[in-house]
Design the sequence.
């Protein structure tokens, strides 16, 4: 199932890239526009734990090796293992930086803020804020002249009992230049 979702997302992003190419008579992109990229990740998990994750991002290439940007996160989380059943909507934002040490290998630093309803056996749910500092690295694989897939391995260096992730955190995403 996951394999088909990744293929579907790639087809959509690549077709969007192909449609965005300049054609005769079209205005050429400015140098600033050519440095902007968009991307993100999409996650789905079903079973006793249901997780739906939509995390878009927008970034900017400051140099050929240094990129940074912002992203947003929405997750729906439901766990049937709790009584009463637990579900919450998770909202968040992040600021990140990537430095390419080699052509396709990068270091990644990120500050992330998340807000969700903490589980309570008394059904007295209250929304809490969780701040994460994620450090690690990754690898990118080009899928066209202007798009690549990446895999990152990150560690939450300020993990707490309220953290939603277990170390290490593995992310797979797609980035496309505008």
Sequence:
């Amino acid at each position: 199932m996951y394999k088909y979702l990744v293929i579907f997302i790639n087809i959509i992003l690549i077709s969007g890239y192909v449609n965005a190419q300049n054609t005769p008579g079209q205005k050429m992109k400015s140098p600033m526009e050519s440095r902007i990229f968009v991307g993100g990740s999409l996650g789905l998990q079903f079973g006793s734990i249901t997780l739906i994750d939509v995390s878009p991002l927008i970034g900017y290439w400051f140099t050929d090796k240094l990129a940074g940007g912002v992203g947003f996160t929405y997750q729906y989380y439901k766990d049937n293992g709790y009584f009463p059943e637990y579900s919450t909507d998770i909202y968040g934002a992040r600021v990140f930086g990537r430095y390419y040490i080699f052509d396709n290998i990068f270091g990644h630093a990120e500050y992330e803020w998340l807000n969700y309803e903490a589980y309570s056996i008394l059904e007295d749910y209250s929304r809490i804020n969780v701040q994460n500092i994620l450090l690690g690295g990754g690898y990118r694989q080009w899928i066209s002249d202007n798009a690549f897939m990446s895999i990152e391995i990150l560690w939450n260096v300020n993990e707490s009992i309220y953290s939603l992730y277990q170390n290490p955190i593995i992310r797979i995403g797609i980035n496309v230049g505008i």
Remarks:
- The chain has one helix and eight strands.
- The longest helix spans residues 2-19.
